[in-house]
Amino acid sequence: MARVGLYGGSFDPIHWGHLLPVLAAKERHGLDRVIYLPTAEPPHKRDQRFAPASVRFAMVELALLEHADLMVSDFEMLREVCYTVETLEHFRRELPGDQLFLLIGFDSWLELGDWHRFAELPQLAEILVMARGNRGGGEVPEVLQQAVRDGRVHFVEGPEIGLASRDLRRAWAAGEAPNAGQAPPLVLDYLRKYGLYR
To answer: What are phi and psi of 74, to 5 degrees?
Structure first.
């Protein structure tokens, strides 16, 4: 039985903050692989414009090339709107003998009570919250607190990266040159080649 992590997001663009905490969580919880799931249009960000899904998928693929145990799936990208609970149900069917882990950031943990059918998430997969040293500042519904007590939710300390896709897009649009401290080299090459976010 493999231990498989699932990590969704817009990845607009993918950067070190999407990679280093995941690698830390993978190591600490003995995951065999992690599947990245770029979304076509996140249900909770419908008022935000994104780079084309195919472009974001390509950047994720480039970012993960050096990591044999990190891969990308187009499952969510091919659906106009896809809820996390539906993704977990899909992979439960596709990988019936494997143990699933949902990886999310701490901000998403605090908002999880607003997600579609959120109470079912801990039943479908264990949740790894990449806390980056921060576990305070908000409350979650009782059903999620119970999942913590039941051992279905784990807080994973990881590196504090201090990057946000939103801030990178703004900086690059203002003329700042992408640099190696922000994203993997192949992603930076892709950004420069196509002049993204300028």
So the answer is: -95, 15
Confidence bin at 34 (pLDDT 50/70/90): very high
- pLDDT given at position 47: 57
Distance CA 17, CA 165 (A): 9
Any long-range contacts for 56-59 (C-beta under 8 Å, 24+ apart)? 56/10, 56/11, 56/12, 56/13, 56/14, 58/190, 59/11, 59/13, 59/14, 59/187, 59/190, 59/191
Contact between 184 and 158 (Cβ < 8 Å): no
The rounded distance, in Å, linking the Cα atoms of 68 and 58 is 16
Q: Give the chain's domains with CATH numbers.
A: 3-194 (3.40.50.620)
Flag whether pLDDT at 136 surpasses 60. no
